[in-house]
Every structure is written in structure tokens, then in C-alpha cells.
Amino acid sequence: MQERIGKSLIGKMIPVRCFTCGRVISDVWEEYRERIKNEDPGKVLDDLGIKRYCCRRMLLTHVELIDEIAPYE
Amino acid sequence: MGYYCLRCKRSVEITNEHQGARCPYCGFRALRKERPEEVVKKVKAE
Amino acid sequence: MEVKIIDQRENEVKFVFSGVNVRFANALRRAMIAEVPKLAIDEVNIHENTSLLYDEQLALRLALIPLKADLGDYSVDDRSTLTLKAISPERAGYTMVYSKELISSDSGVKAAFENIPIVKLIATEREIAGVRTIARQTIALEAIARLGTGKEHAKWQPVTTCGYKIMSSEEARSDLSNKKSVTFTVEGDGSVPVDEIVTEAARIMRKKCESMVDGVKSIK
To answer: Where residue B24 sits, what CATH number does that domain have?
Structure first.
């Protein structure tokens, strides 16, 4: 099952740009992931300058799978 | 695929007619398979 | 025709274009999206890739990185090579490979954003029959950047959001000559400065019009 996730089209890493508008969003991913541990995600996104909802969903809904599939490759 | 001698670096042809392959030039017994150069894969980035 | 800048930030500009035809504004918008050239990675020669990403995935991620360059030095067929080499650590763990690790043969070319994660290289430790082994992942590649335009592929599109709004003021409505005011919002992707995108688009439009005039003249 895990292996099937790895081989599927689900992204293993954060996409470089927003699918809709093309703005680069991956450069703030690591900061975002750290900060949401004790901050409100919406406020963090505002602070990082991600203002459109197309870009915001890229970070909000991303699941980093590269660590999950690492033992099965 | 050919082989080459590890001592004199000359290429050697090996036949399976008799056992105990050795270099016909220097008699050295360590022979190595000649591998092709590093393969570079060309990918279109899109 | 009058241009008034309302707001200008590092990567974004908002301006009012008054006394123009809406068709003209649309032509300018389309020129900015599809005609203004920029540099982007187009071909990748992969020497080694034992990472978790497939060669094609890696190439696409590289292509989407905006590259900063002095475009005056480049013409249509010029190429620039960037190399990337990385290996996971000697002990169990990982190294994240970032866009800043791309080394360019041309000192003027570099990634517009330093911290874009390209790939995570993982080192895993295993114990087989009492012997500890470590499996390391490596990548070694050569990326070739080329000048292109947005009509070929979105990676060569210098703008992200680029649009205009027709302003509906009393003044504009009473104007019978079909001239209106439009508010443009242009946001760059970081590779080309926004003011340069707008002026270059206008220059391209002028060139097209001139070549059309020449074409019409030659018919006569």
C-alpha cells in the first residue's frame, strides 16, 4: 500500500510553484512547516506574503510523502 | 564484450575453450570487463 | 495616453493606463504573458540520480526555478549551463538540495529564489547479517538553460498574475471616443524585474506593428 502511494502521481515533495498562477511557493515551505507548530497557519501565510487563495492551498494542503516512501524505494 | 588486463592494460579476447584465462602478453591472471563510458541520460525539462 | 503608477513593490506593479482602447490593453497583457523572453532550464543531462524522484520529475522541478540573468547578454540561441552535484550524509539522515546549490558557468545567471527545495537525499542504515551498511543517494547533473517565451512553455512566462480592470468612472462613460481607463496589475515570477517586463512587452508590440506596416507597404 505504502509503495503504491510512492509510485502514484501524489507529489513526493512540495511543488515548486502554485499550480494555478505560477508563483513560487516552495521557498517558504520549510519555514511555514516549522511555524504552524505553534502559530495560526492563516496568519503565517499572511506574514509570508502568500495572499491569493490558489497559492495558499498549495501550502495548506500539502502532505510531504518523501519520508514515508523512503524505506520502500 | 572484451576484457582488459589489469597489469598491462591491453585488451584481451577470452574464449571458453580452456580453463584459467590469463593475459597472452604478460601472463597476468586478473582480467576486467571493458565497461562502456558513463551513460548520460538526456531529459527534456517540461 | 497617460500612465500613473499607483503601487510599486519589488516584484509587483499596479498602474493606471488612461485614455486607451481596451483592445490595446489586452494586446499589452498578452505580450507580457507570451512574448517577453526569459531564461529557463530546458534540457537536463543526468549523470547520476539515485534519489527518490524520477529523472523527469527532477528535470521539471529544475525547469520551474526562475533564473535571474542579464538578458541583454543573451540572444535566441544562447545557452547557459548549470551544474548540480549532491550526496546524502555518511550517517543515517538527509540532506536537502536547494536551488542555491546550482552552479552556473555564467556568473550572471543564478536562481531568483535561494531556498527552493529540489530534492531530499536520504541516507538509510541497514543491518544485514550483523554488518551495518549505509545506502547513500546521489545526484549529479548538468542543466542547460535557454531563452524562450511563454507561448512555448509556462516556464518561460515572466509573469504570474497579469491582468487589467476597466475603470467605470463617470468621466470614462461620457467619453464617446471609446477610450477608457484600465488598471493593470502585473506580478513577476522573480526572474525579470516588472518594469522591464512592461517596457519589453511594449517594445515587442511596436516591432510587430512596424513589421505589419512594412508588409502592407510591400503589397503595394
So the answer is: 2.20.28
Written out in words, the top-level CATH class of the domain with range A2-72 is: mainly alpha
At A67, the pLDDT band (50, 70, 90 cuts) reads confident
The reply to whether residue B44 touches residue C45, judged by beta carbons under 8 angstroms, is no
Residue B38 has pLDDT above 80, yes or no: no
Residues whose CB falls within 8 Å of the CB of residue C162, separated by 6 or more in sequence, listed in order: C29, C32, C33, C184, C185, C186, C187
C115 and A CB contact within 8 Å? yes
Q: What is the ipTM of this complex?
A: 0.86
Range of the domain at B22: 1-37
Which of C118, C121, C161, C192 should be substituted to probe chain A, the one whose Cβ sees the most A Cβ atoms within 10 Å? Answer: C161
DSSP structure class, residue C90: S
Answer whether residue B24 is part of any domain. Answer: yes
**Nearest CB to C64: which of A16, A30, A70?**
A16
pLDDT above 90 for B2: no
Cα(C120)–Cα(A12) distance, integer angstroms: 10
Cα distance between residue C169 and residue C177, in whole Å = 15
What CATH number has the domain bearing residue C182? 3.30.1360.10
Q: How many domains does one find in chain B?
A: 1
Q: Is the full-model pTM beyond 0.90? A: no
